[in-house]
Amino acid sequence: MYDFLIVGCGFAGSVLAERLASAGKKILIVDKRDHIAGNAYDYYNEDGILVHKYGPHIFHTNSEEVFKYLSRFTDWRPYEHRVLGSADGQLVPIPINLTTINKLYGKNLTSDEVKDFLASKAEVRNPVLTSEDVVLNTVGKELYEKFFRGYTKKQWDLDPSELDASVTSRVPTRTNTDDRYFTDTFQAMPKHGYTEMFRKMLSHKNISIMLNTDYRDIIEIIPHQNLIYTGPIDSYFDFCFGKLPYRSINFKFETLNQEVYQCTGTINYPTSNLYTRITEFKYLTGQAHQKTTIVYEYPTAEGDPYYPIPRRENQEIYNLYKKLADQTPNVYFTGRLGTYKYYNMDQVVAQSLTLFKKITMQAMSDVQ
């Protein structure tokens, strides 16, 4: 008899498995795939280069609790991600900053002057409801067309006017020369890779792991008291309220017989090409190698569900599933897919740590 059957070996499921196992619970964690670590899974390819199978995963967080927790399972390599965007035949920093504006417009503005410049370009939108509203309200039509509209259309197959404001709110506009993609307090990569971090996380004697396993094939056979489900919530309920839409990505990997391919970790292509961006893994991992591996990302509607699509109508469908989930005893839904939210890795870890505390408090009140 297991105390918890956990579906999914990504961040959401693995953090809960480790926490509950450390609290003395007996855990079985299962995954459909043939590996642990979920979408953060990394491995050495045939040329010996460490790559991320499901696209670049760059860790950053403002949460000391999350960083300290993960530090139990890995040493870190400091890494600040930098992204350039291809616009008007040149590469400029993304998110838009003072350097971006000066390069694009051939100006030499100061931080104060660029604020006025952007204000002169901005188109006031009130209320701000969509991703288009966010960008036009901040930088105006011209920069919206150069950096946001095409990229968003490729990524989501929707115009920014059809997406929730939260999508483009994730990418701030800066009036200084800070060219880091993230400004979080903690920015680092697991020194020996994500898979190794997960291996340590799941190495507790109270945790059993079954890979290549669909939970539906074992749920009636293996006795357990509680279920933690990190897969798509609509699938769990057999799509009774209809399918929740997701975006997926096709990854095209290429290993080149040269040490370096591009001048930074990621280059975005907002208006040109069918792919959204190219990432070179050696920037992320710090690995020294005479060859280099890059990955092109082609967003698609088919394939593994990666990104819940933030739109009001999708949220309304999710709310129906959430109501059903809340009425399902001894089953907990968590993670990006289980709660249909576009979370970063650190947010998923924080969510799982919070759920662990909730489960622990529930158990204590049951005993009393």
From TrEMBL:
Its EC number is 5.4.99.9. Its cofactor is FAD. Keywords: FAD, Flavoprotein, Isomerase. GO terms for molecular function: UDP-galactopyranose mutase activity. Residues 146-342 form the UDP-galactopyranose mutase C-terminal domain. Belongs to the UDP-galactopyranose/dTDP-fucopyranose mutase family. This is UDP-galactopyranose mutase. It comes from Chryseobacterium gilvum. The lineage of its organism: Bacteria, Pseudomonadati, Bacteroidota, Flavobacteriia, Flavobacteriales. The gene is glf.
